[in-house]
Amino acid sequence: MVQDLLIALVVVALAGALYTAAAARVVRQYERGVVLRLGRLRDEVRPPGFTMVLPGFDRLRKVNMQIVTMPVPAQDGITRDNVTVRVDAVIYFKVVDPASAVVEVEDYRFAVSQMAQTSLRSIIGKSDLDDLLSNREKLNQGLELMIDSPAVGWGVQIDRVEIKDVSLPETMKRSMARQAEADRERRARVINADAELQASKKLAEAASQMSTQPAALQLRLLQTVVAVAAEKNSTLVLPFPVELLRFLERAQPQGAPGAPAPEAGQAPDAGTPSPPAAFSEDPGTQAPRPSPSAEPYAHH
């Protein structure tokens, strides 16, 4: 009798151990447990640690509460200004309601991925190429709002969405390179013209200042000669002042050899007799003919 009682106790202990082993569950710190008893959702969500379920009646679903980093496959699209681009992105999200993530959607990861792809294509069609290249922060915010609206009902919170890369056709890259080069050349020309304008103003001020002090021009000339001679040149070119040439021209007498001839239409000097005309022109012809005074005397 006692032996039968001991056997029964051993069997009960083994059955209890087996039941405990089958009912015991461990939920990790970054997880939450959702229990479905006979297909019905239990109200309480199992916290991290050791927990028990009814074997054969309960089913425990563990939901990861960590932030998930999911790459969005590259999407081909046409921008609003008719440029074909290829854009890929990355999305960061986490589960905030484990029960809704299990009950409301079959696979919340797949649902978020598909929603991100469709939203990315929609953003490409609504944006210009310049916005995709330079105004990504605004596009990221719009993309985040588009994905977050349906994800709230799935118990998922979108933490951040980032556009990683924008791929352009080779022809568009070459066109943008030419545009950038032309813009740089334009700015270089503007800067050069501005420098020339400033230099001309300074030179004009220097010339005005030197005109009041003629010795300053001579000092500047000597400085130039010194700068040229420092280069060890075999030939030295000295500029001749134009004012000195004009002084010599005024100092030369009018009757001296080499004096400049009077200009056309200028009256000759009073002391210089004009030579007699040897020919006179016929008004009707272009060629000159001898005047009567110049004809030889006839001998009879």
Shape: rod-shaped
Q: Describe the biggest sheet?
A: 3 strands, antiparallel
Residue share in helices?
40-55%
The number of E-state strands comes to 10
Q: What is the percentage of strand-forming residues?
A: 15-25%
Structural class: alpha+beta
In the sheet with the most strands, the strands line up as 3-2-5
Number of helices: 8
Instruction: Tell me the distance between the termini.
Output: 202 Å
> Stretches where pLDDT falls below 50 for ≥5 residues?
263-300
What gyration radius follows from the Cα positions, in whole Å? 52 Å
Mean pLDDT: 78
List SSEs in N-to-C order.
Answer: HEEEEEEEHHHHEHHHEE
Please specify the SSE layout and strand pairing.
Layout: H1 2-23, E1 24-27, E2 31-37, E3 40-46, E4 49-52, E5 58-64, E6 68-78, E7 84-95, H2 98-103, H3 108-126, H4 129-134, H5 136-151, E8 156-167, H6 170-212, H7 214-229, H8 242-251, E9 279-281, E10 288-290
Antiparallel strand pairs: 1-4, 2-3, 2-5, 6-7, 7-8, 9-10
